Amino acid sequence: MTAWLSEPDSAPHGGESRVQLLARVADWLDTVPDDGGHTVAVTHPAVVRSAVLAALDAPLSAFWRIDIAPLTATQLRGSPGRWTLRSTAAPLVPRHD
Questions:
Q1: Is the pLDDT of residue 56 over 90?
Q2: Over 90: is that where the pLDDT of 2 sits?
Q3: Contact call for residues 51 and 25 (beta carbons, < 8 A)
Q4: Which of 56, 65, 51 shows the shortest CA–CA distance to 21?
């Protein structure tokens, strides 16, 4: 656990390193269609952190400094190659129709 938390290339027990995760998420962002629609991904906080890092072109060292609370939304805007962070940690509020 210590290695995984402190070494970005560490992938103990055959898991995925943070470097690999960031690359996978950045590659996925490059495949999102630029058709004016919306894409929703329900996922783990580590994937959201990686998407934020990719959008901001931030260093991997910032990974643990992004707090993603449960049941919150993070919004990215743009298209492959030019993402911007619109909001993060927005609480999901149920609609009462």
A1: yes
A2: no
A3: yes
A4: 51
Other C-beta atoms within 10 Å of 91: how many?
9
| DSSP secondary structure, the chain, as one string | -HHHHH-TT--GGG---HHHHHHHHHHHHTTS--SS--------HHHHHHHHHHHHT--GGGGGG----TTEEEEEEEETTEEEEEEEEEEP-----
State the pTM of this model.
0.88
Q: Which two tokens stand for residue 42?
A: 């329900």
pLDDT digits (tens, 9 = 90+) for 59-91: 999 999 999 999 999 999 999 999 999 999 899
> 90 and 72 in contact (C-beta within 8 Å)?
yes
